[in-house]
Design goal:
Blueprint (H helix, E strand, L loop, with lengths): L1 H23 L2 E6 L6 H12 L2 E6 L2 H11 L7 E5 L1 H9 L9 H6 L10 E13 L31 H14 L1 H14 L8 H10 L4 E5 H8 L4 H6 L3 E4 L10 E8 L6 H11 L2 H9 L4 E2 L9 H6 L9 H6 L1 H11 L3
Parallel strand pairs: 1-2, 1-3
Antiparallel strand pairs: 3-7, 4-5, 4-6, 4-7, 4-8
Bound molecules: fe (iii) ion.
């Protein structure tokens, strides 16, 4: 009697367990380094379409990566969204991602913008910004020109350890070879107006102020200033020329926002659905426009006045997975060149 009651009790617990598991299937735990206004619509549309509720943990890229590592096998995270191929590569190297096989993703996301383990959902370009009064734009048409002795004391930069610069160097390694890329880095360091500091927006401001003649920046920082509701920020842009580098050679370096499914994801089905959703037309628009970027899916267009102002350009078609592969060599070159 006693044992059968215990058996019934265990059955009941089993049923609750199964019900919980079923309920869990309708949830997606998203670890995201993104936090833009349009993301609310991005996520609520997914829940409306699929019935899957999104639990979001938002933090800085490196903090999220650290958190996933610390949580280990018990991590509730299903998806990790971040920016920059170098960061995605780091997560990949740590073995955090699970390969995703999806016909839809393979069809929608161009081959150079994905790896077997992660996918790009938007792109940004790394451009040269020039102070109109201090430097002639036709003398700085390529990344290589930043090494020209004509720019002595005029180049400003953020840290060489920052993922954006690591990825740029990774591209230069792929195109020029390691030896030439290192020569370039040394010559750029010799042209520095000051020791590396601040972020991309700080470089833009310093160029506008004339403290620096030239710097590089991701496009969305320029778009933000162009779209700013502060007149003093918009007027910074009047003093600046934006150059799309290397239009006659390998094209302007692009980087990505993207993500992948984690190996320890408790909700793998929901995770794949979410990645596929991010490649849909509407999600692509929200995802890209939220940070003034371009959709990864080529057929999707965004109406973004700031990006239109900057115009069309030839993008480097180098696979982003190659950027990832060269990241370690890139950091070593910056270290040797003294690009702190
Ligand atoms: Fe950024």
């Amino acid at each position: 009697m006693k044992s059968s009651r215990l058996f019934l009790a265990l059955l009941a617990i089993g049923a609750i367990g199964a019900a919980t598991a079923q309920a869990q299937e309708k949830v997606l735990n998203l670890y995201s380094a993104r936090h833009y206004q349009t993301d609310e619509a991005l996520y609520s549309n997914f829940t409306r379409q699929t019935g899957i509720k999104i639990n979001r943990i938002e933090a800085k890229e490196d903090e999220l990566l650290e958190r996933i590592r610390n949580e280990g096998a018990a991590s509730p995270a299903d998806i990790f969204l971040t920016v920059d191929a170098a960061r995605l590569a780091k997560a990949d190297e740590l073995g955090l991602f699970a390969p995703v096989k999806s016909k839809l993703l393979e069809e929608r996301i161009p081959a150079n913008l994905r790896s077997p383990d992660w996918f790009a959902f938007s792109t940004r370009a790394r451009v040269i910004v020039i102070n109109k009064a201090a430097v002639k734009a036709d003398e700085v048409q390529n990344y290589e020109d930043l090494a020209s002795p004509k720019l002595k004391g005029k180049v400003c930069s953020r840290s060489g350890s920052h993922p954006y610069n690591i990825s740029l160097m990774s591209a230069l390694i792929a195109h020029l070879g390691e030896a030439k890329a290192e020569e370039w880095a040394r010559a750029v360091v010799a042209n520095f107006a000051r020791a590396p500091k601040g972020g991309d927006t700080d470089q833009i401001k310093s160029v506008a102020a004339g403290e620096c003649g030239v710097a590089v920046s991701n496009t969305y920082y320029l778009a933000r200033l162009l779209r700013s509701d502060k007149p003093e920020e918009r007027s910074l842009m009047d003093r600046i020329t934006i150059v799309w580098p290397n239009q006659k050679t390998f094209g302007t370096h692009i980087n990505i926002s993207g993500g992948g499914m984690l190996k320890t994801a408790p909700n793998k089905e929901s995770a794949v659905k979410f990645l596929e959703y991010l490649a849909s037309d509407d999600a692509q628009r929200y995802f890209a426009d939220g940070n003034n970027e371009w959709p990864a899916v080529a057929s999707v267009a965004v109406k973004n006045p700031a990006l239109e102002t900057m115009g069309k350009f030839k993008a480097d078609s180098l696979p982003v997975a190659t950027l990832a592969k060269n990241a370690v060599a890139a950091q070593r070159i910056y270290d040797r060149a003294g690009w702190k």
